[in-house]
Design a protein that fits this description.
The protein is mostly helical and 116 residues long. 33% of the residues lie in helices and 7% in strands. It contains 2 helices and 2 strands; from the N terminus they run H-H-E-E. It has a two-stranded antiparallel ribbon with strand order 1-2. Strand 1 and strand 2 form a beta hairpin.
């Protein structure tokens, strides 16, 4: 694993490092911080950002693609393309417009929210 994080001129390894870092960051947000209430999420958001930017684990080194400052860590997902380093995208970008058929019972409709 350590060789994966070594800096060299191979762009594929640099992209792989960025992907691993971003998936790790996303995993931390949604495993360690998943069961926290609203106030706790604000505190965890600040703490995780500070930890990852100022004191990242030595094996990881400097974070190549930190969470955007535009919103909470809970508002982003990592969008890994088929090539390139990827990007943080607001999860609402992945939502599709929903339409309902006439006559559908209200109890049969699932509305996408932050928690669903």
């Amino acid at each position: 694993i350590a060789s994966t994080f070594e800096e060299d001129d191979n762009p594929d390894e640099k992209v792989l490092k960025t992907w691993i870092q971003c998936f790790f960051m996303f995993g931390c947000a949604w495993s360690l911080g998943a069961s926290i209430n609203g106030d706790g999420r604000d505190k965890f958001n600040e703490h995780l950002r500070e930890l990852l930017t100022s004191k990242p684990p030595p094996v990881v080194g400097k974070i190549d693609l930190p969470f955007p400052d535009a919103a909470s860590i809970y508002d982003f997902m990592f969008d890994k393309p088929t090539s390139g380093r990827g990007r943080w995208a607001n999860w609402t970008e992945s939502l599709k417009t929903i339409s309902f058929e006439k006559g559908v019972k209200l109890s049969e409709i699932i509305v996408p929210t932050v928690d669903t």
